[in-house]
């Protein structure tokens, strides 16, 4: 019985050691998934001009989906305020109008541009209207919402004015709820490196 027990122990140890070595070899041959960056994207702005995210290298970027007829639309005021305050400190906001929630962005790009300028004096870059969810989701939002692309997390755009924070290397670092105000400490502290 002792011989049998000893034999089982030796075989078990040998088997575990082989399995550990095999696992190590597998891990060494697998290449970790490299997260994409925002810099790969080129989109159109509200005026039909190409906007290349690669031009924002070295800046912190706040990406937000916007709507003109939403209860959260007054956030445009705070977005413009922090943009004006920090744009000279390597910070930029990029807005993406979207009509995905309650049809609260029904206007054309031209109407959206007029609305933003007249009502909130928006000067931060505003892109052409896109879809931020569903089968026709824009490629930028696929990057922002899919961990396999952004390397951080999977997320769903909950509503208008959801915020995505991108670091100076073009990597997604945080997703913030639509109800988090642009002037919230989570955003201002991040801009200031705190």
What is the overall silhouette?
Answer: globular
Unreliable residue stretches: 26-31
* Mean pLDDT across residues: 90
Q: Compute the separation of the termini in Å.
A: 66 Å
Q: Please give the count of helices.
A: 6
Order of helices and strands: HEEEHEHHHEEH
Q: What is the CA-based Rg, rounded? A: 24 Å
Account of the 3D structure:
- There is one protein chain.
- The chain has helices at residues 2-29, 75-86, 109-120, 139-145, 147-150, 185-191; strands at residues 42-44, 50-52, 60-66, 91-97, 163-166, 172-176.
- It is α+β, with helices and mostly antiparallel strands.
- The strands form two sheets. The protein has a four-stranded mixed sheet with strand order 4-3-5-6, with helices on one face. A two-stranded antiparallel sheet has the order 1-2.
- Residues 26-31 have low confidence and may be disordered.
């Amino acid at each position: 019985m002792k011989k049998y027990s000893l034999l089982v122990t030796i075989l078990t140890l040998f088997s575990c050691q082989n399995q550990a070595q095999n696992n190590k070899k597998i891990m060494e041959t697998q290449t970790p998934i490299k997260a994409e960056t925002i810099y790969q994207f080129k989109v159109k702005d509200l005026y039909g001009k190409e906007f290349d995210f690669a031009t924002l290298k070295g800046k912190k970027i706040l990406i937000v989906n916007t709507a003109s007829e939403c209860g959260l639309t007054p956030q445009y005021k705070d977005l413009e305020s922090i943009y004006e305050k920090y744009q000279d400190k390597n910070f930029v906001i990029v807005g993406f109008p979207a009509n995905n929630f309650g049809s609260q962005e029904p206007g054309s790009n031209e109407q959206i541009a007029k609305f933003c300028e007249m009502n909130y004096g928006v000067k931060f870059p505003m892109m052409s209207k896109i879809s931020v969810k569903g089968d026709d989701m824009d490629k930028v939002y696929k990057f922002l919402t899919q961990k396999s692309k952004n390397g951080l997390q999977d997320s769903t755009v909950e509503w208008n004015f959801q915020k995505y924070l991108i670091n100076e290397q073009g990597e997604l670092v945080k997703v913030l709820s639509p109800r988090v105000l642009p002037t919230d400490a989570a955003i201002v502290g991040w801009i200031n490196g705190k």
